[in-house]
Amino acid sequence: MYVTASKDGSLRIWDGVSAECVRPIIGAHGSVEATSAIFTKDERYILSSGKDSCIKLWEVGTGRLVKQYPGAVNTQFRCQAVFNETEEFVLSTDEQNNEVVVWDALTSERVARLPSGHTGAPRWLEHSPVEPVFVTCGNDRSVRFWK
């Protein structure tokens, strides 16, 4: 399986063998662009983000919205929402405040707002799948390594 995020705000889950859409989640982020979508390690859930400033957790089997992670503004740039290596936390960027925002994945409680150190909003965020480290990239052509 693989998942795609669309400019029309939808998510689509595809069969990796037949390349057929097996579950569309139409309007997952309203009518604004869905900018990222990733599976959890067990492939039971999808974490998505969009230009509606919403980060959402979806159930793959039903397409049901399970959780939302509020508090990060993303309306202009494509942003990512990612899990940390243990999937205990969700991380994303806040373009309005130039920060990295961290939520508890189970409770959706915001646990940290970290100044990014970039000149302007961070444009990319990626977490290691095996270590407690991540990187951010900015328009200022800098890459920050967080440990």
Determine the CATH superfamily.
Answer: YVTN repeat-like/Quinoprotein amine dehydrogenase
Task: State the secondary-structure class.
Answer: mainly beta
Estimate the mean pLDDT confidence: 95
Secondary structure tally: strands: 14
Task: Tell me the CATH architecture.
Answer: 7 Propeller
Fold-level CATH name:
Methylamine Dehydrogenase, Chain H
| Number of DSSP helical runs | 0
Instruction: State the distance separating the first and last CA atoms.
Output: 31 Å
Instruction: Choose one word for the global shape.
Output: globular
The biggest beta sheet reads: 4 strands, antiparallel
**In CATH, what is the class?**
Mainly Beta
Strand order of the largest sheet: 4-5-6-7
Helical content, roughly? under 10%
Secondary-structure element order, as H and E? EEEEEEEEEEEEEE
Strand content: over 45%
